[in-house]
Design a protein that fits this description.
Blueprint (H helix, E strand, L loop, with lengths): L9 H13 L5 E2 H10 L28 H16 L6 E6 L5 H13 L1 H6 E6 L3 H11 L4 H5 L3 E4 L9 E8 L8 E6 L2 E9 L14 E6 L4 H9 L13 E5 L2 H12 E10 L1 E2 L1 H4 L10 E4 L2 E3 L10 E3 L2 E2 H10 L3 E7 H7 L2 H7 L8 H17 L9 E7 L1 H9 L13
Parallel strand pairs: 2-3, 2-5, 3-4, 5-10, 11-15
Antiparallel strand pairs: 1-7, 6-7, 6-9, 7-8, 10-17, 12-13, 12-14, 16-17
Helix pairs in contact: 3-4, 9-11
Length: 417
């Protein structure tokens, strides 16, 4: 479904047009285009405001369903602290914190439910978008003044973290899906890459509804693309893949995980996102890939519309994250669905607790129905519940603890408990 009346950030259009005019062949990779559209320091989608996220924005995330998602993640983080032997400080590094809702719910839950764990926490937020970082600071600092005063709630870049300096957990929710991706196709049994160039006769000043940019397909910009598929034992140029098959390659995800693994001394990496195993991601029937754009809760697959006013995402290849992690010395503890993960952590108990012997009325009934709807949406198999949850760990301390006591979030939930 495409939204009506496309909007364009004119400054961003002009910036990209000028870049194209001086680029070799007057083209840039789609990954370069996507990176600029989402992450340019001053002109990008995330640069101007944090209000594009949420019920009144372009899309919602699990934390917008209420505090339950963050509280259940907090319960898992508390168990990880116990597995690590109650370290102090206990480092929690959230990567891509959006509006700060997840941080608020996690910290609020641990402050209330486990003061000892809360007292050990050093909460770091890695946020590249300047506007989002500013929004998070204004939102979170007044709620946790003790953490701020103790320098235990801080913001940093991933590159700022020293090798082996983190004992605790790196975690993210809907981060990797927004990494820039290379797009490829198999045409005439040849692998080609998607480049972006100017539509003939367009200079970016007055874009038509389709935008001033168009696709051009050419030889891959880097041998890393072919290597990516070789590592997965996938050949898009051969049957059963059809001619014209289009998909994405996220070369940034392994590089990101490498930085995380280097900074992690002892502990865990928890990645929540929408995606598939490589077998499902690159199945021959998925002929147009997974690229999606979101604006005002409408979605479509044209990244050139609404430039600067829409999010651009692609699903995550969790198999590559697992294999990359293992090559870096990480142990894969489990990969599951968000619905199962949250049920194992107590989401079912929260749903059961909403049952009452007395039939509520008025505001009480409306509150109960909203809460029940939010919990059910977190486990919807056609939506948030189908998100992937990957848990990895580093060091013998973390791995050995699991031999006798597996992570609660990775156990089989007791349905109906």
């Amino acid at each position: 479904m495409q939204p009506s009346q496309p909007q364009f950030n004119a400054d961003l259009c002009r910036h990209l047009c000028e870049r194209l005019k001086t680029a070799p062949g007057q083209q840039i990779t789609f990954a370069h285009f996507m990176e600029t559209a989402l992450y340019h320091p001053e002109l990008c989608y995330y640069a101007s405001t944090a209000r594009q996220i949420g019920p009144k924005g372009d899309f919602i995330t699990s934390p917008h369903m209420g505090p339950d998602f963050g509280e259940l993640i907090g319960e898992q983080l508390r168990e990880l602290w116990q597995h690590l032997g109650h370290p102090n400080p206990y480092d929690l590094v959230e990567m891509g914190a959006g509006q700060g809702l997840l941080a608020k719910d996690i910290l609020g839950y641990l402050r209330r439910e486990d003061p000892d764990c809360f007292a050990a926490i050093h909460y770091r937020i890695v946020e590249t978008a300047i506007a989002l970082r500013s929004f998070q600071q204004k939102f979170l600092k007044p709620q946790f003044p003790g953490l701020v005063e103790g320098d235990r709630l801080t913001w940093c870049d991933l590159d700022d973290l020293e090798k082996g300096s983190i004992t605790g957990c790196f975690f993210s929710n809907e981060l990797v899906d927004a990494f820039p991706v290379h797009r490829v196709t198999a045409t005439d049994r040849t692998l080609l890459e998607n480049y972006v160039t100017l539509r003939p006769g367009m200079d970016g000043e007055a874009p038509d509804p389709a935008g001033p940019f168009v696709d051009r397909w050419d030889e891959p910009s880097t041998p890393a693309i072919a290597q990516y598929f070789q590592d997965l034992h996938i050949d898009l140029t051969q049957p059963p893949y059809p001619d014209g098959y289009v998909t994405e390659v996220n070369l940034g995800a392994p590089k990101w995980l490498e930085k995380v693994a280097i900074a992690l001394g002892h502990g865990y990496i928890l990645t929540v996102d929408y995606g598939y195993t490589a077998q499902r991601y690159y199945q021959p029937a998925r002929t147009r890939g997974t690229l999606q754009c979101y604006t005002r809760h409408a979605h479509h697959d044209n990244p050139y519309m609404n430039l600067g006013h829409q999010d651009i995402t692609a699903h995550v290849d969790f198999t590559t994250l697992e294999r990359t992690g293992e090559s870096l010395g990480l142990t894969t503890l489990g990969f599951t669905q968000q619905a199962l993960f949250l049920m194992s952590l107590g989401l079912g108990d929260r749903l059961a607790a909403l049952a009452t012997d007395e039939y509520p009325t008025g505001d009480q009934l409306r509150t109960l129905l909203r809460r029940r709807d939010s919990l059910q949406r977190l486990m919807d198999p056609l939506g948030l519940g189908n998100f992937g949850v990957l848990v990895q760990c580093k060091s013998a301390i973390a791995a050995d603890a699991l031999e006798t006591l597996p992570l609660r979030g990775l156990t089989v939930p007791e349905w109906g408990s």
